[in-house]
Specification:
The complex is a heterodimer of chains A (about 625) and B (about 120).
Chain A (H helix, E strand, L loop, with lengths): L2 H6 L13 E6 L7 H14 L7 E5 L7 H5 L4 E13 L9 H5 L5 E4 L2 E4 L9 H5 L5 E14 L6 E7 L6 H9 L7 E5 L6 H8 L3 E6 L3 H17 L3 E8 L4 H9 L4 E6 L2 H8 L4 H4 L4 H14 L16 E2 L14 E6 L7 H11 L3 E5 L8 H4 L2 E8 L2 E6 L9 H5 L5 E4 L4 E4 L9 H5 L5 E6 L2 E8 L2 E8 L6 H18 L4 E5 L6 H7 L4 E6 L3 H16 L5 E4 L6 H14 L2 E5 L5 H8 L3 H4 L3 H15 L2
Parallel strand pairs in A: 1-8, 1-9, 2-7, 2-8, 9-10, 10-11, 12-15, 13-22, 13-23, 14-21, 14-22, 23-24, 24-25
Antiparallel strand pairs in A: 3-6, 4-5, 6-7, 15-20, 16-19, 17-18, 20-21
Chain B lengths: L1 E6 L17 E6 L5 E5 L1 H4 L5 H12 L3 E4 L4 H9 L3 E4 L6 H9 L17
Parallel strand pairs in B: 1-4, 4-5
Antiparallel strand pairs in B: 1-2, 2-3
Helix pairs in contact in B: 2-3
The chains are: A alpha/beta (about 625), B alpha/beta (about 120).
C-alpha cells in the first residue's frame, strides 16, 4: 500500500485500526430499515473510490433470506458446501436402548420398537448422541446444510453470499463458514441477519466495527435500542446510521446519546431512492450525490465507533423465573377468529396494517409475535398489567470447586462455548455461545458441570383503550424464540376466551424460520403484507411456501402499490397462479410516516388514501368472517 | 384395539384435538374393554421443535396400536409407520367415542402418508 497515494484522497485508511484488514458488520434490530441498501452502496462506493487501495469484499450473511445477489445480477458459483455432522447408526451395534433419543435436546432422534430414526433437519450437530451411546453405535457423518456462493471477479468489489438449505436450522454454521473466507488484507463489508437472535450474534462477534442502520420512527428507535444492547453485551464498537432521514431524526439522536454512540451519517428520504431500491439498483451507483456521504460515514465509523454504554432497562423483568407460562396449554376455541398478519421480509408495513386493524376492530385482543422486536405496543399506548420471565432454554454452568481442569469440555464443545482463561487456568461457559446441548455435562469426568435454566425473555400482558395486548421481549442471543411465540399465542388464546372477544389479531414475526412457523400453525386466517420491490417479491415466494405447508390459503395485501408497477404486477400474477386472493392494495401515502411518528394508527390519523384503503380492506375481512 | 387419541380435556366426552404433536393430552382408549387412561403431553406441547416426533415415540411406548388425531405431519408419520401404528385422521370435530365408532365401523380408513407437510419438506 502506498501511503502517499492514500493521502491524496479523503477516503480513510485502515491504519488507525492497527491492521490492513477490517470487518464491518451492518445490522439492524428489525428488517426493512435499509441494511442491504447500505451494504451494497458502501461496497460499491469504496470499491471504486480512487485512493482506497484496499480490495473490498461484500459478504451477504443474511443466510435465511439472502438478497444482495438480486441487486448485483452477477454470475456466482458455488464455492463450497457447508457441512454439518449428523448421526449415523451401526445397526449391528445398536440395541435400541434409546439413550440417544432421551439426551437429544433437539428431538432429532426417535427410537421406537428398538429402531432408531434420525431427523437430520432438526439435528444441531452437537455430538451428544455419539458421546453417550454405550455401544459406540453412532458415528457422525458430514452432510451438506447449505452453501457458500461467490463471484470473485465481480467489480468493483468481490462478492460472496451464503444460503441455508430450505428446512435447515443451523444458520450460524453457514455464517461461520463464510467468515472464514473474509479478506485477510482488505475491507470486508458484511450484510448481517436482522434481529438480535443467535445468527446475528455470530456475525457481530466476528466484527471489528458494527454499523446499526435504523429509520427515524418509534419502531426504528425501539429496535435500535435492542441492537445497541446486544453490541454492549458483546463489547463491540458500533455507530448508528439513519436511513430515510427527515425532521424526526432527534428521536434516534437522543437514543444514540443515551448509549453514547455516534450517528455517523444519514441517507435522506426520497421517493426516487425507494423506487430505485425496489428495482434492485445500488443507490450510490444511481445517485452520485450520495457517494460523499457514504465515504464520510465510513471515515467516521473508523474514528468514532465505540462500545455502547450498558443502559438499564426501566421495565426490568421482575418476579420469579418461570419455566413456562401458567397459561400454556390453552387451546383455541371456535368462538373467535384468529387473524395472523405476516410478511416474509421486514419493513413492508406489517405493523401498520395490524395497527389499523386494531383500531378498526370493535372487539379484540392483540398479540405481538414479533418477539425479536415487538412494537405493536407503540401504537396501542398500553399500560403493562403484568410481566413474567420466560425461561425455556438451558445453559451449562461449571462448578469451579469440582473442576479438575482436564479440558474435555473445551475439546468436546461444538459451539465454542467453553472459554479458557490462560491466567487463572479456569474453564467457564460462554453464555452467548452455549446452545444448552448438554455435551459438556456428559463428558465431564468430575461431574462439575450442571445445567441451569436460561432466560429466554419476558412475557407481558398490557391493557390499552383498544383492547388487551400480549407481547414479549426476547433476551439478546436467546434461543427458543419460536417457543416464546407459542407462549404469546397461548396466553392470547386464554385472554380472548375469557373476555369473549370476536377477534384475535396476531402481528407475526418477519422471516420464514421457527418463529414464523410458531405464529402461523393452526391460525384461522393468514394475511401477507408485501410491497412491490425485488426483495419483497423474492421473500413473498418463500413465505407463501411456508403457509401452504400448513394448509392455509393466504390473502395478500400489496402495500405502497404504486412505487413500482412492474413488481406490483408480478405480485398479482403470483397470487393469481397460486389461486390466492388479493385482499387490497394500499397506495403510497406520505402521511403513513407521520402517523407512525405520532404513534397513532393511520386510520385514526387521517382520511388519506392509505387510511381509506385500509378501511375498505377491513370491511372485506369482516364480510368474509 | 388400543387407540391413542389427541384430546382437549380429560373426559370421555372430550373432542378430538386436531393437533398431534402439540396436543395437550392423549387418551389411551381400549375399545375392547372400554378402559381409558389419560396422558399429558405438556412437554411436547412446549417443545421448540420435534414435538411430533417425541409425541409419536411416547404414544408408541404407551402401547397404542392406532392413533386418532386431526392432522399428522411427515416426521410423526415416519415414526408411527416404523412402529406399525395406524393413523386415522378425523374431521368435523367429533368426540373421542364418536371417532372410535367411525373407525371401527370402517367409515374412516387409515392414512397412507402424512396429510400435512412438515416445515419445509
Amino acid at each position: 500500500m502506498n501511503p502517499a497515494k492514500l493521502k491524496q484522497w479523503k477516503v480513510p485508511t485502515l491504519k488507525d485500526t492497527g491492521s490492513d484488514s477490517l470487518k464491518v458488520v451492518i445490522c439492524s434490530g428489525k428488517g426493512g430499515t435499509g441494511k442491504t441498501t447500505l451494504a451494497l452502496s458502501m461496497a460499491w462506493t469504496l470499491g471504486r473510490a480512487e485512493g482506497f487501495s484496499l480490495p473490498v469484499k461484500l459478504l451477504d450473511c443474511d443466510v435465511e433470506e439472502p438478497n444482495c445477489h438480486l441487486f448485483l445480477r452477477c454470475n456466482y458459483d458455488t464455492l463450497m458446501p457447508v457441512l454439518a455432522e449428523k448421526p449415523v447408526f451401526d445397526m449391528q451395534l445398536c440395541n435400541g436402548c434409546g439413550r440417544c433419543s432421551n439426551k437429544c435436546r433437539y428431538n432429532a432422534i426417535a427410537v421406537v420398537k428398538g429402531k432408531p430414526l434420525v431427523f437430520n433437519d432438526l439435528c444441531h450437530s452437537c455430538g451428544v448422541c455419539g458421546v453417550i451411546c454405550p455401544r459406540d453405535a453412532i458415528t457422525l457423518k458430514a452432510v451438506s446444510i447449505g452453501e457458500v456462493l461467490a463471484d470473485n471477479n465481480h467489480r468493483p468489489f468481490s462478492f460472496m453470499f451464503g444460503r441455508l438449505n430450505v428446512g435447515e436450522s443451523q444458520s450460524p454454521m453457514v455464517i461461520g463458514e463464510m467468515l472464514k473466507h473474509a479478506l485477510p488484507d482488505g475491507l470486508n463489508i458484511i450484510d448481517g441477519p436482522p434481529g438480535t437472535a443467535c445468527n446475528t450474534v455470530k456475525a457481530i462477534a466476528a466484527a471489528d466495527k458494527v454499523i446499526l442502520v435504523t429509520e427515524p420512527t418509534p419502531f426504528g428507535a425501539n429496535d435500535l435500542a435492542l441492537a445497541l444492547d446486544l453490541c454492549a453485551q458483546l463489547q463491540k464498537p458500533c455507530a448508528v446510521l439513519i436511513n430515510r432521514s427527515d425532521s424526526n431524526d432527534q428521536l434516534i439522536e437522543k437514543l444514540a446519546e443515551r448509549y453514547q454512540v455516534s450517528v455517523i451519517g444519514k441517507i435522506p428520504f426520497k421517493r426516487e431512492y425507494a423506487r430505485a431500491c425496489s428495482d434492485g439498483l445500488i443507490l450510490t451507483e444511481e445517485f452520485p450525490e450520495l457517494r460523499a456521504g457514504v465515504i464520510s460515514s465510513f471515515s467516521r465509523l473508523l474514528s468514532e465507533a465505540v462500545v455502547p454504554l450498558t443502559v438499564k432497562d426501566e421495565t426490568a423483568d421482575q418476579g420469579e423465573c418461570r419455566v413456562a407460562s401458567a397459561s400454556v396449554g390453552n387451546q383455541k376455541s371456535d368462538d373467535y377468529q384468529e387473524l395472523t398478519v405476516l410478511s416474509g421480509k421486514g419493513g413492508t408495513g406489517k405493523t401498520t396494517v395490524t395497527g389499523a386493524f386494531v383500531a378498526l376492530a370493535d372487539s379484540l385482543v392483540a398479540a405481538d409475535c414479533d418477539v425479536d422486536a415487538a412494537n405493536l405496543r407503540l401504537i396501542m399506548n398500553e399500560k403493562i398489567l403484568y410481566t413474567e420471565r420466560a425461561c425455556l432454554g438451558s445453559e451449562a454452568v461449571i462448578d469451579q470447586r469440582k473442576c479438575t481442569r482436564c479440558g474435555k469440555c473445551f475439546d468436546g464443545c461444538r459451539f465454542g462455548a467453553i472459554d479458557f482463561d490462560e491466567q487463572t487456568k479456569r474453564y467457564s461457559v460462554n453464555e452467548l455461545n452455549c446452545e444448552g446441548c448438554g455435551l459438556c455435562i456428559e463428558v465431564c469426568p468430575a461431574k462439575a458441570i450442571s445445567e441451569k435454566r436460561a432466560e429466554t425473555g419476558s412475557l407481558m400482558l398490557s391493557e390499552s383503550a383498544r383492547g388487551q395486548l400480549v407481547h414479549a421481549k426476547l433476551a439478546p442471543a436467546a434461543e427458543n424464540s419460536g417457543k416464546l411465540v407459542s407462549m404469546v399465542r397461548s396466553l392470547a388464546f386464554a385472554i380472548v376466551d375469557q373476555q369473549q372477544k370476536e377477534w384475535l389479531l396476531v402481528d407475526g414475526p418477519p422471516g420464514t424460520a421457527c418463529p414464523a412457523i410458531a405464529s402461523v400453525t393452526g391460525s384461522d386466517r393468514v394475511i401477507l403484507v408485501t410491497e412491490p420491490t425485488i426483495a419483497a417479491v423474492h421473500d413473498l415466494e418463500r413465505i407463501i411456501k411456508l403457509v401452504r405447508h400448513f394448509g392455509l390459503k393466504p390473502e395478500i395485501i400489496i402495500n405502497k402499490v404504486d412505487i413500482n408497477p412492474t413488481y406490483a404486477r408480478k405480485i398479482r400474477d403470483l397470487a393469481d397462479t397460486a389461486g390466492y386472493k388479493i385482499l387490497g392494495e394500499i397506495p403510497f401515502d406520505d402521511t403513513v410516516k407521520e402517523a407512525i411518528k405520532a404513534g397513532v394508527p393511520i386510520v385514526d390519523f387521517n382520511a388519506g388514501p392509505a387510511s381509506h384503503a385500509l378501511k375498505n380492506i377491513w370491511n372485506k375481512i369482516k364480510e368474509t368472517r | 384395539m388400543k387407540f391413542a387419541v389427541s384430546v382437549r380435556e380429560q373426559s370421555i366426552d372430550a373432542k378430538v384435538d386436531s393437533r398431534f404433536g402439540r396436543a395437550q393430552m392423549f387418551a389411551l382408549y381400549d375399545s375392547k374393554t372400554g378402559e381409558c387412561s389419560w396422558h399429558p403431553n405438556t412437554q411436547n406441547f412446549q417443545a421448540a421443535q420435534g414435538a411430533g416426533i417425541q409425541t409419536a415415540q411416547n404414544v408408541v411406548n404407551l402401547g397404542a396400536e392406532a392413533v386418532i388425531s386431526g392432522h399428522c405431519g411427515p416426521k410423526a408419520y415416519r415414526v408411527l409407520e416404523a412402529a406399525n401404528v395406524h393413523i386415522y385422521s378425523v374431521t368435523g370435530n367429533p368426540t373421542l367415542k364418536e371417532a372410535v365408532q367411525m373407525i371401527e365401523s370402517g367409515k374412516i380408513k387409515a392414512m397412507e402418508g402424512a396429510d400435512v407437510e412438515g416445515h419445509w419438506v
